[in-house]
From TrEMBL:
SUPFAM superfamilies: Xylose isomerase-like (SSF51658). Pfam families: AP_endonuc_2. It comes from the Bacteria. Residues 23-251 form the Xylose isomerase-like TIM barrel domain. This is D-psicose/D-tagatose/L-ribulose 3-epimerase.
Length: 283
């Protein structure tokens, strides 16, 4: 069975001691790992939380976004360079946590649009910086897995076809792909076809319901999804990413205006759901 993770953004985007009892309970439920948002500037906190995860036997993955001032597709070289430096800083903090994988839509700035369809030069700009970031991440022992987002949060990579194109241009063994079922539910025609399309690059996977609530409670075609993962012999993480209103500032920043599920209901029932689907489809 693949390793199962849970993204603690369901509680908080901060990096603080308040996460420790949450991590303890996730471990008790049976989770193999926790996923953290890398955004807080409290550098020492990453090492403290990373040490706690190590002590309780909980593995780590991380996620991040870039601001418009760090946009890898910007025509301004200094902005692209700021993006590279930010990714390097995030890789350093991920290393402090003991992260194995850094995921997220860091191929471009979050919710930043050019009022045009993506251009070849934009894929080339992003690929150039991602290749350099891949070199840095390799030294830290961290795999980079850029993520395709829905059209309301991104325009460069909405589909697995676009993400595959970017990764082909990036051409780095340490830069692979992430798949998120929430975004794919909006942008792909068929979940299984999309998974097969990205299979040569696929290295991280977010289990996310259509409304970001508890997996299995909505209309994501989970049988099709797990069957496709089994067919391509996917061996990476299956990490639940669900959002709540528990951290209002973070929720406001991503347009989460209501409580889809309570965090612990999502964690407990989501874990059971993944185990059941994995066993059913032979993952």
């Amino acid at each position: 069975m693949n390793k199962i993770g849970f993204n603690v953004l369901a509680w908080s985007a901060s990096m603080s001691e308040d996460l420790k009892p949450i991590l303890d309970r996730l471990k008790k439920i049976g989770y193999d790992g926790a996923e953290f948002f890398v955004g807080s500037d409290d550098v020492a906190a990453y090492k403290r939380i990373g040490k706690h995860c190590e002590n309780i036997g909980l593995e780590v993955t991380t996620v991040c976004v870039l601001s418009p001032e760090e946009n890898l597709v910007s025509p301004e070289l200094d902005i692209r360079q700021k993006g590279l430096e930010k990714i390097k800083w995030i890789i350093d903090r991920s290393h402090d946590l003991g992260s194995q994988v850094l995921c997220g839509p860091f191929h471009s700035a979050f919710a930043t649009f050019s009022k045009a369809a993506p251009q070849d030069i934009e894929y080339a700009r992003s690929a150039e910086i991602l290749h350099q970031a891949g070199d840095y991440a390799k030294e830290a022992g961290i795999l980079l897995t850029p993520e395709a987002l829905n059209r309301f949060e991104c325009y460069l990579c909405n589909t697995m076809e676009q993400l595959s194109h970017l990764l082909k241009n990036t051409n780095h063994p340490n830069v692979k792909a992430m798949f998120d079922t929430h975004h794919a539910n909006m942008e792909e025609k068929k979940m299984g076809d999309a998974i097969r399309k990205i299979a040569p690059y696929l290295s991280h996977f977010h289990i996310s319901e259509n409304d970001r609530g508890t997996p299995g409670s909505g209309h994501i075609p989970w049988d099709e999804t797990f069957a496709a993962l089994a067919a391509i012999k996917y061996k990476g993480w299956l990490t639940i990413e669900g959002f709540t209103r528990n951290d209002p500032d973070f929720a406001n920043s991503i347009g989460v205006w209501r409580q889809f599920s309570e965090p612990w209901e999502m964690a407990e029932n989501g874990y059971k759901f993944i185990k059941e689907m994995g066993e059913k489809h032979g993952l």
